[in-house]
UniProtKB/TrEMBL annotation:
Organism lineage string: Bacteria, Bacillati, Actinomycetota, Actinomycetes, Mycobacteriales
CDD domains documented for this protein: SRPBCC_2
Name by which UniProt lists this protein: Oligoketide cyclase/lipid transport protein
Species whose genome carries this gene: Mycolicibacterium rhodesiae (strain NBB3) (Mycobacterium rhodesiae)
Superkingdom of source: Bacteria
Annotated PANTHER family: COENZYME Q-BINDING PROTEIN COQ10 START DOMAIN-CONTAINING PROTEIN, CONSERVED PROTEIN TB16.3
A Pfam cross-reference name: Polyketide_cyc2
Length: 147
């Protein structure tokens, strides 16, 4: 059964600065506790990641996933190519400039291939949503300050 969620955050940075942090997938384990490792398998001509292999741990399950990214000036989305604990995953960040800030909307839809109690899945999704928004905001601000 597919589960989806959505969350918004305002980040005191330009869309380009936000996209640059998202594009630095190899640093994701530094700011997202669910990611244990991330390795770029293939990049686009502009250097942005295309295919990425990552090890993710959530709700006590460790999974190795390969995802494929699609980039525009105001959106990054990804879809699952392979995994053992997920049948599918589609997610995106949509960025809307707002003065010197950026509104960031994160959407995710997953379909598990392993059974999981609803309350465990809800807790795992809540943590993932917080990291994907608040965690991203903290990392963007840290990078922007040169930290």
């Amino acid at each position: 059964m597919a589960t989806s969620d959505s969350r918004e955050v305002v980040i005191e940075a330009s869309p380009e600065e936000v996209l640059d942090v998202i594009a630095d997938v190899e640093a994701t384990p530094d700011w997202s506790s669910q990611y244990q490792s991330a390795e770029i398998l293939e990049s686009y001509d502009d250097g942005r990641p295309r295919r990425v292999k990552m090890k993710v741990k959530s709700a006590g399950i460790t999974d190795e996933q390969v995802i494929e990214y699609t980039w525009t000036d105001s959106k990054v989305s990804w879809t699952l190519i392979s995994a053992s604990a997920l049948k599918s995953q589609d997610a995106s960040y949509t960025l809307t400039p707002d003065g010197d800030k950026t509104k960031v909307k994160f959407d995710i839809k997953i379909d598990l291939s392993v059974p999981m109690p609803g309350f465990v899945l809800k807790r795992a999704m809540k943590g993932a949503m917080e990291t994907a928004t608040d965690g991203l905001r903290k990392q963007v601000l840290k990078v922007k300050k040169g930290g």
